[in-house]
Amino acid sequence: MDFSIASILLLDGMTNGAVYALLGLATVLVFTVTRVIFIPQGEFVAYGALTLAMLQTGKTPGTVWLLLCLALLAAVMEFMARWRHHGNPARALQSGLKMLALPLVIALVSIWAAPQQFPLWVQAALSVAIVTAFGPLVYRVAYQSLEAATPLVLLIVSVGVHFAMTGLGLLFFGAEGFRNPTFWDERFAIGPVALSGQTTIIFVVSLALIVLLWLYFEKSLRGKALRATAVNRTGARLMGISTHASGQLTFMMAALIGALSGLLIGPTTTVFYDSGFLIGLKGFVAAVIAGLSSYPGALLGALFVGIVEAFGAFWASAFKEVIVFTLVLPILLVRSLRSGHSDEEH
After folding, report:
1. What would the DSSP string read from start to end of 156-178?
2. Residues 7-26: tens digit of each pLDDT
3. What SS3 class is residue 196?
4. Has this prediction a pTM greater than 0.70?
5. Within its chain, how far is the Cα of 330 from the centroid?
C-alpha cells in the first residue's frame, strides 16, 4: 500500500464516518433523553434515500401512505388518551387533530408534487419533510405509553419497530435497490486524491448539522429543556417540562438526521429497503464507543469506524463488516472493567 492508496482510503473512511457521526449523534440524543436504544435509526436513512428515488420517477412514494396511516393511528391514540385523562371530548378531539394536521399537509403536498418533476433540491426537501414527520408519530405509537418502562423493555420495542419498518420498506419500495443522482458533479484534485462534489457536500452538511445541534442545545430554551430531561426526567417534569413533548421532539430530530443521512449517502451507494440496518448499526457502534452519553465521543468514534471500515475493505473486503462490529467487543470490555458495578436492586 503506497501513500496515494492510503490517502484515498482515508478520504473514503472519513466520508462514511461523517455520515456515521450523524447517526451516532442521533442515537446518543435519543438514548439520553428517552432511554431508548433506537435500533430503527437506520430505517430513516433508507426511507429518506428511497423516498427521493421514488420522487425521481414521478411516483408518489409509499412512505406518504404509511405516513397517513401512522398519523391516523397516532391521532386516535391521542384522542383516547386525552379523553380518559381529562374527560373532555372537545379537548381530546383538538389534541387528536393537532397530531394529524402536519402529516396530513405534508402528505397532500407530496401527492400533488410527485408527478410534477420538480428540481432535485425540491424533491430532496420534500423527502426530508416526509421522513421527519415519522419521528413524533413513531414515538407516540410505540414508546410514549411505555416511557416509564425499563430500558430492556424499550429495547425489545425497538427491535419490533425495526422489523416492522423493514417489512413495510419491502412492501412500499420492493426488493430492488436505487442509487440517487449526485447533488454536485464537480471534482477537485488534492494531491493524489480526487475530491468529488458529493463528498464535499457530505462534509459540509455533516459539520453544519453538528454545529447547529450544539447551538440548539446550548442557546435555545427547548434545547436546554431536552438537556434537563436527559439529566433528570423527574426533575424536569416537576419544573413543568413535558416528557411527552421532549420525546416527540427528540424523535423528530432523529428522523431529520436520518433523512439527511439518507440523502447524503444515496448517491454514493445503492440503497435497498434493508440497507439502513447495517448503516445505522455502524452509527450505533460509534455511539457505544462514546458510552451512549458523549456527543464529541460519538463523532470521534464514527470517524474511527469509517476509517477502519475503509482499510478493512481494502485488506479483507469479505470481512469488513465483521471487523467493524468486532470493534465494539473490546470497547465494552474496557468500559465494563473501568465502571463500577452495583447490585440490581440499587
Report:
1. HHHHHHHHHHHHHHHHHH-S--B
2. 888 888 888 888 999 998 89
3. strand
4. yes
5. 26
